[in-house]
Amino acid sequence: MLSLITSICFLYFFNSCAIPLASYYLTLSPESGDTQNLFAFSLISNIGNCETGGDIWARNIQTQGSYCVPVDIISTKSNVIVYKQRGLFVNMDLLKFATEFNDSTYPKLVSAFGEPSDVDKNGKIKILVLDIVDGSATNSAYVAGFYDPVNFFRDGTVSSIRSNYAEILYIDGKELVASLANDPTAFASTAAHEFQHLIRYQYMNTARVTDDTWINEGTSEVASDIAGFGPQTARLSCFRGTETTRCPNGANGISLLSWASTSSSATILKQYAMAYAYMRYLYDISGNNETEKNNFFRASVQGNASGVRAGTASQLMTVFRSSSRFNSSILGSDNPTVFFNTFMLFFGQASAITGFSSIDYFSASDISSSTISNKSLASAYLTYPFESTLNDLITSPLPAVTGNLTFQTGSSFVLNTNYNLTSISSKFENMGTVKNLGNTKTLVGWGAYSSSSPLTAIRGSLESKSESTGADRYKSLIQSGSTSETLSPLPLCGTQFIDEPVRNVESIPVELPASKNDSTL
Questions:
Q1: DSSP state of 31
Q2: Within a domain: residue 141?
Q3: Cβ atoms of 179 and 500 closer than 8 Å
């Protein structure tokens, strides 16, 4: 307890003392040759004052505490204020970025998702370009940007996590900027990704829930497309396994739904690729034009006419069923059926297995019997084909895999064999197969977002492994083990890269700032 109190007091004392100390040295007029005063002037000018000055609190990713960043205003626009960490050399045109974000990214994403919150009542969001403290080393992963929801709540001086009580995006000005040589849109794309998180958070807070990670992150990935920085080619390369080092076997066997904090970086990377591609597919087939597609996404964030938001897979299907292009006679009239059908259509096209006229699957009535149902999605395939954004998956589809493979809800495999559902000993609803001409290749998918068991053993080529069960198995990484939604920790959505090109990893768990005012969820 003593060490905790000492730590808190030190942080508070340091920032309090920065005011008179800076005032003293800044009244000096360093003359030529007065190197001591010049050094002091330079040192103190780079000490932030977030208590009464205009500097900005930021999250130390390593310690999860806040520190004060001294800032300079780079540009003030009608929708955005861009700041830069004082003393940080940023090798890019931030004035051009400010104009682009203000005039293009901001209106495009507001059109898609709605207006951002405005807790500080200034009508603008702030973007701080800084060297994010993440402990990154050369050729290692680093945090390229994040949105910190602590800023949605009023500040309290007792906690080590401080709030600016303003809409702020944090974008890396070091490693991320260096990556522009290989990916010229990485900086602007990251800002668009995080902007979706910022817009979405107010609705999560109002609903007292934390949306499933794959929906939130997948939507942010598509947000970068909407802003004009897509398609996400690195995501698609990972999905189909072209990046053999980082994404071996591509999306084969990876669960779209169940994201765990213990997952390997390769698994998380593939899940991001799946979330992007599937959410992009839903976005594409939700409407006949950009306005109709944006209406679907806005409803998924804010809620449809019935007030249903897309926080879970079932809720996402409810919102999707109210989209303008949805056809219940083709895709089904209940959420589990719609999810299965869109899931199989998506993976079939991504695998170049499009024998949708004869899909074998287990229906609810098949579970206790030895029968297998059959359905046709041939009309759905003709009505909802991939659009140009996902053409890479048609040109270079998901490869076939062999060996002992783990089968999970929300996952699929491509097999170079005529695999039949009769080989599955443990049956669960909405497992199915799609085959190519000649039955030489099989897509085995489990298009279900809930079941009596999250895994099943498939005898022969597939085997099961343990996974969490019960209601928590689909919780996102940004939630604690508590079963109470209202006690979940706040997310810190970060974008990370490894070598290039851009990739994302999942949110960092952050505890609720209990000492903050108005922060009860």
A1: P
A2: yes
A3: yes
Q: Which residue has the tokens 């996400």?
A: 232
> What sign does the CA torsion over 294, 297, 302, 303 have?
positive
| Residue 416 located in a structural domain | no
Residues 152 and 35 grouped into a single domain? no
Read off the pLDDT of residues 139-158 as tens digits, 9 standing for 90 and up.
667 888 999 999 999 987 66
Domain count within the chain: 2
Q: Is 279 a member of any domain? A: no
Q: Which residue has tokens 């006229």?
A: 357
- Measured in Å, how far apart are the chain's first and last C-alpha atoms? 26
Quick one: 109 and 203 in the same domain? yes
* Residue at 343 is within a domain: no
Are residues 166 and 122 in contact, defined by beta-carbon separation less than 8 angstroms? yes
Sheet holding 71-76, edge to edge: 71-76, 80-85, 125-130, 168-172, 142-147, 493-497
* Separation CA 279–CA 77 (nearest Å): 32
Give buried/exposed letters for 10-47 (b at 16+ CB in 10 A, else e): ebeeebeebeebbeebeeeeeeeeeeeeeebbeebeeb
Are the beta carbons of 342 and 445 closer than 8 angstroms?
no
pLDDT-derived band at 491 (thresholds 50, 70, 90) equals very low
pLDDT at 511 over 70: no
Pair 123, 32 in one domain: no
User: Which of 380, 370, 372 minimizes the C-alpha distance to 431?
Assistant: 372
Q: What CA–CA distances, in Å, run from 357 to 53, 326, 408, 434?
A: 66, 20, 25, 9
Strand partners, 443: 414, 434
Domain holding 22, by residue range, is: 2-47
For residue 448, give the nearest of 311, 257, 273 by alpha carbon: 257
pLDDT classification of 30: cutoffs 50, 70, 90: very low
pLDDT tier, 77 (very low <50, low <70, confident <90, very high otherwise): very high
Bridge partners, residue 493, by sequence: 147
**184 and 65 in a common domain:** yes
Q: Identify the three-state secondary structure at position 219.
A: helix
**Distance (Å, rounded) from C-alpha 321 to C-alpha 346?**
17
Whether residues 31 and 126 share a domain: the answer is: no
Q: Which helix (H) or strand (E) segment is 265 a member of?
A: helix 265-286
CA distance 69 to 114: 30
DSSP label at residue 389: G
Asked whether 162 and 17 are in contact (CB, 8 A), the reply is: no
234: alpha, beta or left? (left if phi > 0; alpha if psi -120 to 50) = alpha
Closest CA to 294 of 343, 189, 223, 198: 223
Give the separation between CA 350 and CA 386, rounded to whole angstroms.
9
pLDDT score of 506: 32
90 and 175 part of one domain = yes
Mean local confidence (pLDDT), 304-317: 94
List the beta bridge partners of residue 415.
442
